[in-house]
Amino acid sequence: MNFKTLKLPIYKSINHEIHYAMSFIGGGMEIISFKYLYKALIGYMTSNMIFGINSLAEGDFDFSSFYHILIIVIWMLLGAGHQIIANRCSYHPKSPMHGYAIAMTTSTFILFLFIFIGQYMFGHGLLGETPTLSVMPLVTIGLLFMYIQNFIIKNGGTAYPTTTSVVTTVYVLMITRLAGSFNRNKTALEQRASLSEGIHYVMVLIHFFAGAYITIKLSEHYQFNSLYLVFFVLLFLTLKVWREHSVLRNDFKKKTA
What is the pTM assigned to this prediction? Predict the structure, then answer.
């Protein structure tokens, strides 16, 4: 299959494809975690902090009260673990796409594991009305996936200052850049650049919304299995990134031969 021919004109580069696909996938993951994992927005720690503070303020010091706080703690441990590994291990990518290919391959396996375990727990009545310690392995798997997703988006090569798929910053940047494209004090080149960046954020929001909406509708019948749509999107793009890596690596070998 020639993956190079499978690119829509709205995507400027494979880096943009990665960013938008991850936004689409992130929307699906967030909506499923919110629906089935007790409103755990596993990619947004501010939301979990608010839920956690509210639960603690209600005075019921049970596991449910600490559930969202524990999610934040696990997220920070993942970040700390990543930094320790990065500091101790040397990594020499064989192409600009090599790191993304490895990260996306890892994400593909993690997402499959999340879907499989989540559907099993749902089907066997292991997801009760309130969170328990038994749900934390599934939540941790989801957090690991979202952490890698954030890393891929942040380092995805679009050169735009976003670290996650959709946060408040994206809305602010979108409006600011779109408004900047009409600023007569800017040169025509600066206006076009501002418009291009503004449209990029619009694309991020559209893909996130589409991923969340389609997945939540599918979940009415398929629960966690509704995530297989975003799984196959991720799998397809991962294969495409590996293909791009292979081409870039071979080109580099020819130049240095």
Answer: 0.90
